[in-house]
Inverse folding.
């Protein structure tokens, strides 16, 4: 698997940087919880905000450790950082190499398009898995010092839901890049889906009339059941990973058939 290994070798420094960034963000956010009387101070503040704002941003249970971790890290900056890095990886995997001429050179060495596509996908998945393990481990380490009181059994479903959103964005960017050969198209698609998903989830939380928005929002698929509080949501995970698989298949079908020199 030379392409898979090479992709990991080329990106290990960036992977470490992103892991450190996620650790720093999580540490910063979670460290505030223990300074607010186990979240009671923040809950009092949240109770004074407009109910629509609280619902939109999912701050209703922020007075608990699990609610705080979900709302501040997994539901905000941690989510957008993960989406950004996955979109960057997905857009670079095929479209990036095609634009700089490296893809034609790679294919000239009797490497099939399927091998290039699937091994680059494998590298993306492995890097995402590493970030997921880092975040899960960091969450467990920070639980005691910050008095979060988390149920460790719920960390896996939370991290898998979070990673599922990242995978969906990354595979969409990969597929669009493989279909169009344009990196900017891939980035636009991957970034657009996470922004749209976040807005749909927020608007869906505001009013019962907007409940249909949860049905089409990947953020809702991941978080509507609050996995860090309530555990596994198999339907949401199936949607996230199933749609990601469809993106992968669509990108592969077109990439193996189109003219990459066009």
């Amino acid at each position: 698997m030379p392409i898979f290994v090479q992709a990991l070798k080329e990106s290990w420094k960036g992977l470490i940087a992103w892991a450190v960034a996620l650790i720093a963000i999580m540490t910063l956010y979670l460290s505030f919880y223990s300074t607010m009387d186990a979240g009671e101070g923040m809950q009092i503040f949240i109770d004074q905000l407009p109910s629509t704002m609280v619902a939109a941003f999912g701050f209703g249970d922020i007075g608990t450790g699990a609610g705080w971790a979900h709302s501040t890290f997994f539901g905000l900056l941690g989510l957008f950082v993960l989406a950004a890095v996955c979109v960057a990886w997905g857009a670079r995997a095929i479209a990036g190499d095609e634009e700089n001429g490296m893809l034609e050179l790679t294919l000239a060495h009797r490497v099939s398009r399927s091998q290039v596509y699937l091994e680059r996908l494998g590298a993306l998945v492995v890097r995402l898995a590493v970030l997921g393990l880092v975040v899960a481990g960091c969450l467990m380490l920070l639980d005691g010092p910050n008095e979060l009181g988390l149920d460790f059994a719920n960390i896996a479903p939370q991290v898998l839901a979070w990673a599922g959103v990242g995978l969906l964005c990354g595979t969409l960017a990969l597929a669009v890049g493989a279909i169009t050969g344009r990196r900017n198209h891939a980035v636009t698609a991957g970034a657009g889906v996470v922004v749209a998903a976040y807005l749909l989830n927020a608007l869906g939380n505001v009013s019962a009339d907007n409940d249909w928005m949860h049905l089409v929002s990947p953020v809702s698929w991941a978080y509507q059941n609050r996995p860090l509080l309530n555990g596994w949501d198999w339907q949401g995970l199936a949607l996230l990973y199933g749609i990601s698989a469809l993106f992968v298949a669509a990108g592969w079908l077109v990439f193996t058939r189109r003219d990459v020199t066009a």
